[in-house]
Write a structure and sequence with these properties.
Elements: H1 17-43, E1 59-64, E2 70-79, E3 84-91, E4 97-104, E5 111-117, E6 122-130, E7 133-141, E8 147-156, E9 162-169, E10 177-186, E11 229-230, E12 248-249, E13 254-259, E14 271-274, E15 280-281, E16 285-297, E17 300-311, E18 317-325, E19 331-341, E20 355-363, H2 365-371, E21 379-387
Length: about 400
């Protein structure tokens, strides 16, 4: 049989297969190299030295004040390939929480931060890191829309701790007051915080006093000193900053008893006031003045009690109770004002006196005549509860 007459066999095509495999391999390798190159480009922008400036902030922290008392906890971590630093804050006792996001804006090359807290305030900062210290400046907008200038500092210390301080200004930056200040301690070092100083041994209680003599006759109105009396517990001066030690700090709720006076024959335009309340403060708030005026009406006699209040802090609210106490201590009339703003920069403030709140105590004629006739003067009990 003539071999030339036989049809062609497929075996003659096999030598071309390695060339096809090689070509496909080169194509896959080229595509994979492109993917790796693209991944490298997208992963690298936030791995530079600028984005590593806040590495000292990363970790789990406990924030404490200068007495070692815990203010809250903070967790700081890197997100999104190093492009965002997130802080998650929880106040001690679950009093509040918040979160901040810090990032470098490529448009200006500086750090920006946005904070939102459970109180509804929003803070917008921008700043830089110089000599290892992060400094921010910006605005803090309260839940009611009030805007305060704000600045913050975060500085690493040699012992591995961080010093964090936030200040606010109410007068376009002319003066600043400290809003928050704490030392950030690594959570693992909780047991290393300084122990409270030992208390001195208590002295032996004094011997019981002899029975008190019979009460002296009640002094006349002219002899009565008319001093304001603090009912709530005082806080030792050692816990106050030096600039506030001229004040008497009381625990909140602050309770003051203010003498009204014998006004059995006063005219309708009667007014009585005192500025002695301004020496008492509770959580930065004080009652700076109390004024009482008389108003005759169909129900009898009303006493309008105007209370001037001032707070050196921000984002504070308060409750105010006023009770007119008969000489025996029982309340004859009461009034209550709940959850009003105490912070500075409020539209209702009146100069340095702060806010003025008016509460009305309504008395029938018989009760008024009994309380404000001859004899011991009645008291106004003012109760101011301060809260964030």
């Amino acid at each position: 049989m003539d071999d030339r007459a036989q049809p062609s066999r497929p075996a003659r095509r096999w030598p071309r297969l390695p060339l096809l495999v090689a070509a496909l391999g080169l194509l896959v390798l080229s595509a994979w190299t492109g993917v790796l190159r693209a991944a490298s480009v997208t992963a690298s922008p936030c791995r530079d030295a600028v984005h590593r400036q806040l590495d000292f902030w990363l970790g789990e922290w406990r924030a404490v004040d200068d007495q070692g008392r815990e203010l809250g906890t903070s967790r700081v971590e890197v997100l999104h390939g190093g492009c965002v630093i997130q802080e998650t804050w929880t106040s001690a006792g679950d009093a509040g929480s918040g979160e901040s996001l810090s990032f470098v804006d490529p448009a200006d090359g500086v750090w920006h931060q946005v904070w939102i807290g459970s109180s509804g305030n929003v803070v917008r900062y921008q700043g830089t890191v110089e000599d290892g210290v992060l400094r921010f400046e910006g605005e803090d907008t309260s839940a009611d829309g009030t805007i305060h200038l704000s600045r913050a500092m975060l500085r690493p210390e040699a012992d591995g701790h961080l010093h964090h301080k936030i200040e606010r200004s109410d007068d376009a930056g002319a003066t600043w007051s400290t809003y928050f200040e704490a030392t950030y301690v690594p959570a693992a070092e909780a047991a290393l915080l300084p122990e409270p100083a030992p208390q001195p041994p208590q002295a032996e209680p004094p011997a019981p006093a002899p029975p008190a003599p019979a009460a002296a006759p009640e002094p006349s109105e002219a002899e009565r000193p008319g001093k304001v009396t603090a009912v709530s517990v005082e806080v030792p001066d050692a816990e106050l900053p030096p600039e506030e030690r001229s004040k008497i700090r009381l625990k909140s709720p602050m309770e003051l008893e203010v003498p009204v006076g014998a006004i059995e024959s006063i005219p309708e335009e009667y007014s009585w006031s005192t500025d002695e309340t301004a020496q008492y403060v509770a959580d930065g708030a004080s009652i700076t003045r109390v004024t009482v005026s008389r108003d005759e009406n169909k129900k009898g006699v009303a006493l309008d009690v105007t209370v001037a209040l001032h707070s050196g802090s921000f984002l504070q609210h308060g409750d105010l109770d006023v009770a007119l106490l008969a000489p025996g201590g029982e309340p004859a009339a009461t009034a209550h004002l709940e959850n009003f703003s105490l912070g500075r920069s409020l539209s209702g403030q009146k100069g340095e006196a702060g806010l003025e709140k008016k509460l009305r105590l309504q008395l029938d004629r018989a009760t008024f005549d009994r309380l404000f006739g001859k004899g011991p003067r009645p008291l106004l009990r003012l109760t101011l509860t301060v809260r964030e």
